[in-house]
Amino acid sequence: MNDTTEKKNRPMRPDPIPRIDSNFFWDACKRGEFVVQKCEPCNKLWHPPRALCPVCHSSEKTEAKLSGKGTVMSWCRQVRPASFLFAESPWVILVELDEGVRMVSNLEGEDAPEFGMRVTVDFAETSGGKAVPVFRALETGEAG
Amino acid sequence: MVAESQRACIVGIGQTEFSKASGRSEQQLAAEAVVAACQDAGLSPHDIDGFTTFAIDKSDEIDLMRSVGARDINYTTRLPQGGAASVATLVHAKNAVESGMCDYFIIWRAMNERSQYRFGQPSVSLSPDAHSSTFMEWCFPFGAQTPAAWEALSCGHYMNTYGVTSEDLGQISVTFRKAAATNPNAFFYGKPITLADHQDSRWIVEPWFRLLDCCQESDGGCAILITTRERAKNLKQKPVPIFGAEYSMLFNHEIISDFYEGDLLHNDLAIRATEKLVNACGIAPKDTKVAMIYDNFTPQVLRQLEGFGYCGLGEAKDYVADGNLELGGATPLSPNGGLIGEAYIHGINNITEGVRQMRGTAANQIKDAETAFIGSGVAGAIIGKAE
Questions:
Q1: How many domains does chain B have?
Q2: Is there a single domain that holds both residue B222 and residue B331?
Q3: Which residues form the domain of B289?
Q4: Span B330-334, mean pLDDT?
Q5: How confident is the model at residue B108 (pLDDT cuts 50, 70, 90)?
Q6: Are residue B260 and residue B330 in the same domain, yes or no?
Q7: Which of A22, A48, A79 sits opposite B203 (nearest CB)?
């Protein structure tokens, strides 16, 4: 594979923006794990991540593994301007995960998004070799 | 309860022209608008002793003082939340003068959001550090990178649930542009649109926003001067009293990326601001004769009509279709043409229009309006007829 091919094959997606309180999330994606911030003393899940648990104020934050299953609550596609640093504007979805937290992501695959669509997590590589969670439609009959 | 002599009143408004290429710095636009507001009131800018604007403004208090010659500032504050804070500036202005902290308080906004940068497009200069909201950090890597995209995500569930169509949204744009067409200060003066024009305009965010659902990127500046009713006696203009000004910030709610809390149907922030407003002054937004409602994107008007109590949940599209927002309707909407028709000075030009309505000097003057409502998503104010 020459340099040009390699460059062409590099995924066109911006890297996640690193921040101290949220790096755990992106690091887990890179390992292929889908997690969310969990407050250890009170077991509550929080997304987007935050400095302290807003209920009990503990800083004892751990990661809870998520099922990766959720429901599309809203969706859109940025047309003008097209999504910056993407080959093509993706379908953007707001997903309510079965565990109750909400997250912005993308729907990948052949299907167009629909309200109430059941989705399951996958991971997409970014241009700098990081990873972000994306979703695809759950097939009829597929668990979830 | 503040003594009536100490009630906060708007005594000066100033603005530059609204354009797509001002040809001068944002700092100059700010200074010109502030001086114009002081001249309107008959006050020397040297006597200003309080300032506020809100996030995403590149002009600065110290720099503004250097240009307008303000000698001695007692209080300045910078609100979060972008344009949603535009009406919240009145809360701070009111408190600043009614508490005695400031004698002459200035609200300002000035931006070259079209010629110097593109306000509606992805900007790497926006901080990812969760300032106000998490839209950069948690939306950018997924290709939702513009205010229109964030707004579409937060309103999509509402529009789907209540069957709001693109034509419903188009009717709102038509209303704004009709008003702007007869306002000489409006960028779209003399340029009304039809529903067909709206339907023919290109997609900005599929399947929700066409070009004509979006406010315009504008260059320009506005300023507003507030003092007490007592001090207003020595100034040129009849004072416009601020009967109430309130804002809400609720747990886990963000601003434009407000999709992590609530059912995404009820406009929780506007509902809370309305409760506080009614408690504070006994006047509800729907009791007023003119409604200046923040229109960054058309669905935001629907959700605020409901949140501010003009109609029930899911009823806003019918409230619009029934003609209530027309200049001759029950609650005329933004007779200046709003941010979509006049200019997007980030909401502050809706306050200056509210003041003109109360002075009786607006281009599209609403007759017999004793009070006006000004709302910006999380904040609302009731102002009264010039005394």
A1: 2
A2: no
A3: 145-216+243-382
A4: 95
A5: very high
A6: yes
A7: A79
